[in-house]
């Protein structure tokens, strides 16, 4: 029987230790309304500037990164949360190992 909800008791237990010079991603949930992906960055890894075609939320679970939203650079660390409209240029540079949830909000 399929449950009518998705539940993760411990996201940290799901995170892989990324190999040096790598970023690991794992889709945790995907529906008509949203897609949730767990990312783990090795220190020094980056996602260069890009956009998403739908609104998105970044929730940083651990580590420290430089987060660029539009033209603004921010520091992201455990418990940092950012909501972005569709098509906003953004980038992430992991200064330490980083774990982050990406939530894409489908229209």
Name some characteristics of this structure.
0% helix, mainly beta, five-stranded antiparallel β-sheet, four-stranded antiparallel β-sheet, 107 residues
Question: How would you describe the overall organization of this protein?
Answer:
The structure is a single chain. This protein is mainly β. The chain is 0% helix and 53% strand. The protein contains no helices and nine strands. It has strands spanning 23-30, 34-41, 46-50, 56-62, 64-69, 72-77, 81-84, 90-94, 98-105. The strands form two sheets. Strands 1-2-9-4-7 form a five-stranded antiparallel beta sheet, with no helix packed on it. A four-stranded antiparallel beta sheet has the order 3-8-5-6, with no helix packed on it. The protein is globular and about 45 Å long. The protein starts with 22 loop residues before the first strand and ends with a strand.
């Amino acid at each position: 029987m399929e449950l009518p909800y998705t539940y993760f008791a411990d996201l940290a237990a799901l995170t892989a230790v990324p190999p040096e010079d790598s970023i690991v991603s794992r889709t945790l949930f995907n529906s008509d309304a949203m897609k949730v992906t767990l990312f783990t960055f090795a220190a020094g890894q980056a996602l260069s500037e890009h956009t998403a075609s739908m609104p998105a939320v970044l929730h940083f679970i651990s580590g420290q990164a430089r987060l660029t939203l539009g033209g603004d650079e921010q520091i992201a660390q455990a418990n940092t949360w950012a909501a972005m409209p569709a098509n906003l240029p953004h980038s992430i540079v992991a200064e330490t190992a980083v774990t982050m949830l990406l939530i894409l909000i489908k229209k």
